[in-house]
Amino acid sequence: MRPIDEQILEVMEKEGNMTPDALDKLDVTVANYASNRLSLMAKYGLVERIVKGLYRITDDGIGFLDGRVDASKLERVDKDADN
């Protein structure tokens, strides 16, 4: 996890479902980097891909923000999350 991942999750918890472009428009990070980070977080279950390019925060993502989930202990849940 990188600091930007927590920022992305915080925005998603507050604003709801997000696309990389929406995160870019909110000045969280540039769209390409947001896309990469979201894909990686989806592989570990912190976010879920609804359709290509649209993600929602999961219970584990909220748990990470609340301190109930240790990201270093997460296992890869979806090897094809970014395909």
UniProtKB/TrEMBL annotation:
InterPro entries: WH-like_DNA-bd_sf (IPR036388), WH_DNA-bd_sf (IPR036390). It comes from the Archaea. This is ArsR family transcriptional regulator.
